[in-house]
Amino acid sequence: MTHALVTGGAGFIGSHVAAGLLERGHTVTVLDVLDPYYDLRIKEQNLERCREIGGDRFRFVEGSVTDEELVRSLLSSHDVEIVYHQAAQAGVRTSVENPKKPHRINTTGLLTLLMAADEFGVRRFVNASSSSVYGEVEYLPYDEDHQTVPQSPYGVTKLAGEHYCRLWDEIYDLPTVSLRYFTVYGPRMRPNMAITNFTSRCVNGDPPVIYGDGKQTRDFTYIDDVVDANLTLLDTDDCDGEVVNVGSTRTITIEELATHVIDETGADVGLEYADPKEADARHTHADVSKACDLIDYEPSTGIREGVSQFVDWYRDNRDWYEPMVLESQTVRSSA
C-alpha cells in the first residue's frame, strides 16, 4: 500500500481525495493550516470522516505548506511516496480584492513542496490546478493547448504552479502532473459556492440570486469524478510531465442551473438577478479527450444528477451545514 501526503486535506477536494485513498487501504497524512477562509466546522467534519475510514492509517498535521522545516520533516521521515497537492488560497473574487493573498500559498507553498519532494525521492507529485488559467475564450471546449490568459490573480498563481511543476519534471526528474479542475461540486463543498447558495435559498423559500444575466455557462464537475482522476494516478506514469483537464464535458447556464435547483427542491420561487462579479469567467467547457486517452477518464455524473444528489445530501445534513451557508450569504451580501 502507498503512503500519500494530501496537502489541504481538510478542505473540500482534498478531504475527498484523502477519503478515497483510505477507502482503498492506503496510508494518508493530511497537512492543512485550517485557514478560516470558510467555517472550520466543515473542515473538522472532513477530518472526522477520514479518521472514521482510516483509523491508524490516517494522520493529521496542522501546518502550512510554506513551512519549509515542517514539509521537509514530513517527507523525510514518513516514507511518503506520492504528494497530492490540493492546498490553495482559493477564490477568484477574493484574489481580485487582495491580489497578494493567493501568492504565498499557491506559489511559494508549491515551490516548498516541490523542492522537498525532489530531495526526498517522492515518486509522483500531483498538482491541483484550475480552469481559471484559461481566461479569455479563443474557442470552446478548452483543450490543454488553448491559450492561457488568466483574468484573476488566482488564475495567474495556478498557471505559475503548472509551469513550476513542468520544470521540476523536466529539470529535476520529479514526475509531476497538473490536473485542471473545472468547477468541482458535491457534498461538503465550500458554503459560498453557487450550488450551495441556490440550494439553501430554495429550501428556505427564497429565490436564488444570479450574478449577471444568467447566460454564462459552466462545466460543473462532480467530486467523485475528480477523486477517480486523482486515484488513477497512483498506478500510471502516462501523465508524467503533463497538464490534464478534469471536467464533465457538458455545460449548463447559470440560469438553467438555478431553475434546476428550484425544481429539485420543489420551491415556489422565481429568479433574482444582481450585478455581475468582477473577473468571473463568461464560459467554461472542458475538452477531456486527453484525460480519456491517458488515464481512461470518463466522467460519470452529469450536472442534473449531481445537483439531485447534492440536494439530498443537503437535506440530510441541513442542521449542521446550513448555518454556515447562511453566514456566507450574509458576508457576500454585505461585501
TrEMBL record:
A Pfam family of this chain: Epimerase
Domain of life the protein comes from: Archaea
CDD domains: UDP_AE_SDR_e
Domain (NAD-dependent epimerase/dehydratase) ranges: 4-247
Gene3D superfamilies xref list: NAD(P)-binding Rossmann-like Domain, UDP-galactose 4-epimerase, domain 1
Record InterPro entries: Epimerase_deHydtase (IPR001509), NAD(P)-bd_dom_sf (IPR036291)
Family: Belongs to the NAD(P)-dependent epimerase/dehydratase family.
PANTHER family: DTDP-D-GLUCOSE 4,6-DEHYDRATASE-RELATED (PTHR43000)
Protein's UniProt name: SDR family oxidoreductase
Native source organism of the sequence: Natrarchaeobius chitinivorans
